[in-house]
Design brief:
By secondary structure, the protein is of the alpha+beta class. The protein has three domains: 46 residues, no CATH class; 64 residues, SH3 type barrels (Roll); 58 residues, no CATH class. Helix content is 32%, strand content 37%.
């Protein structure tokens, strides 16, 4: 019995890449995902975005966004997987930022223009700052609403933990069991 277990373990460990376990079971076909992949022989990361077609034991099948091409990604090369929670706009945030920026800039310009000379229609620097702040705030709010309405993805990380088990040569011409855990 011991020999059968040992031979089974050695057979599994002699497969290319050893045994690899990753927690990608939360991925479902059709979901929009973003995968960070290490290029072979380099530390450079490449991001791929698209729809998940399928998950296999050692790879992901991805239809990249903007193309009709499908890509196979080896799980051993994946350093990060993110799932889109959906696309949403940031209109209110854009309006708030536009309001503050426009009001501040308008007030600064109005105040910097100084006091008018006395006449029928003359304003002090303070009056101009208030009017400039109101006008700039309105304009900034409109521009911020337009800019903030662009829809972007909201991403959630999917844990990618790897456990690699393999046979390693030892100094005494034997073989040893090696375990690598990557988080």
């Amino acid at each position: 019995m011991r020999t059968i277990v040992l031979l089974s373990l050695m057979g599994a460990l002699s497969m290319p890449g050893g045994l690899t376990a990753q927690t990608v079971s939360t991925l479902e076909a059709g979901r929009r995902i973003r995968v960070s992949v290490r290029r072979i022989g380099s530390d450079l990361l490449v991001r791929k975005v698209g729809s998940l077609l399928a998950v296999r034991r050692d790879s992901l099948f991805l239809k990249e966004a903007g193309t009709n091409d499908s890509t196979v990604v080896a799980l051993t090369q994946v350093s990060r997987i993110e799932v889109s929670r959906g696309r949403r706009g940031h209109t209110l945030q854009g309006m708030g930022i536009g309001l503050l920026a426009g009001a501040g800039f308008g007030a600064l310009i109005g105040y910097a223009s100084g006091d008018d000379e006395a006449g029928f229609l003359s304003f002090s620097a303070g009056d101009k700052a208030v009017l400039g702040g109101m006008g700039g705030g309105i304009l900034g709010t409109l521009i911020g609403a337009i800019g903030g309405s662009a829809r972007t993805d909201s991403w959630v990380d999917v844990p990618v933990r790897r456990v690699n088990i393999g046979l390693l040569p030892t100094r005494s011409r034997g073989a040893g069991l090696g375990v690598t855990v990557t988080f």
